[in-house]
Input
Amino acid sequence: MKYQLKRIDTWSAVKITFLIAGVVGFVVGALYAVLITLMASFMGMVGMSEGMPEEMGYIVGATGFIAVVAWIVLTILYAVLGALVVALATWLYNLLAGAIGGVTVTFEAVPSVVPASDATPAPPAAAPPASDASTAAQDASGPDPQST
Output
């Protein structure tokens, strides 16, 4: 079976991308927050042994706040920019697919394998008894050609 993708709904693609990019931004932001914190603690350790200027002490102390802000900003930035890029891409795809045709996709049916059940099949139901002799005779001879 061949199908052609003529149009992508922009809003549905943007919603999904916003969530996925937000999760990726959350993870990347967490990594940056940990990296910023580790770098600041390393700066503090090195600075203490070498006589760090007093201004550097304030920066090292504020890195926890900076790390949290970076985490939040990166999460929002990834989500918004990812959604904007996908909105632009779907708009462009819809424009080009309308002009020159969409992507053609071929699907092939795969036979399904039904697992064998352990239960034995039920015996077939018996036919109901005929109510009178004329019905039984008609059933035996087939349908009446005059009645059609």
